[in-house]
Amino acid sequence: MNMILMVPLVAHLLMSLALFSIPYLTRREILFGVVLPADFRSRREGRRAIRVFQTTVAMSAISGLFFMVLLRSRFDAVPIFASGVMMVLGFSAFVMQNRKLRAFAIQPRPVRELELSTEPERLPRFVWLGLVPLVILAASAFYLGAHWDDIPERRPVQWDVTGQPNGWADRTPEGVYGPLVFGTGMTLWLFAFSLVIWYGSRRSEPLRRPVLGVFIALEWVAALMMADVAMRAFIRLPLALLPGILIAVILASIAYLIKTNRNSRGPLDATPNECWKGGIIYYNPGDPVLFVGRRDGAGFTLNMGNPWSWVVIGSPLLITLTTFLIRP
Q1: What is the domain range of residue 306?
Q2: pLDDT tens-digit profile of 184-206?
């Protein structure tokens, strides 16, 4: 089996495993986005809901793998289509179970607006480590400027899954500093986003501090990856090293957040059941908070009833725009 087929197969398998595990990612009192009695998962209705959902995911995942192997040589879009269908069926099954379990729901206590104090809360000390990646990128830019004449006239800046270069950049300001500019934008966005989550969520949320640490770790890896691309004329790290570290950090972060979320002894989710659309989207104009804890996993999701949520959603477009402006 060649690498070109292996990559989408592994990606499909990982996505299917993530979907299959959704019922076990939240606290025991939450199942398919509904707050339920603590013993509901062991009841007949709870076991049946989990079984139906996982059967749907497993069947769509296996079917997708079959078509990817059988038709990959004929249609290049088969992996995308197969994984897309699996995701749609999986989340449709999630929403279906959410609707069925609402009859057993427990209404949480009303949202406590006093938790959103007007007095700024002191940030953890480790948050300032999020500024170090900017220093790394700035130092890389200074080094490249000081050794401009040693940079090749044309060099690879992009590689395929087999390690062969498929993207090149010239020795121009855009070609040399472009990856560093992009890395700076990404780092600033991650740092700002982490602060928005910290100040835009309730202080009782148990994942506020862990999520802040995860974003700081992602900043470091993103900055190092962009610095590596810009500095490959001088420092030749193995191509798979930093992407491998990024994948490891992401997987470790997900596992850490899930474990922290499941073992949390903090207060139960206080958001009203009726404000959750399918157990996935939270819409509550009466709730001043911008971020709330997810009901379909570990982490945070936006309160779509808050107008500032659309600013947050649109913010990644700035990085995309920067990419086009500095494209070599």
Answers
A1: 113-325
A2: 988 999 999 999 999 998 888 88
- Give the CA distances from residue 180 to residues 144, 236, 289, in Å, rounded to whole numbers and listed in that order: 11, 17, 34
Above 80 in pLDDT, residue 321? no
* 74-107 tens-digit pLDDT: 656 777 888 889 999 999 999 999 999 999 988 7
Same domain, 126 and 272: yes
Answer with the one of 104, 129, 157 that is the final residue of a domain. Answer: 104
72 pLDDT tier (thresholds 50, 70, 90): low
Euclidean distance between CA atoms 154 and 272, whole angstroms: 58
Q: How far apart are CA 83 and CA 12, in angstroms?
A: 6
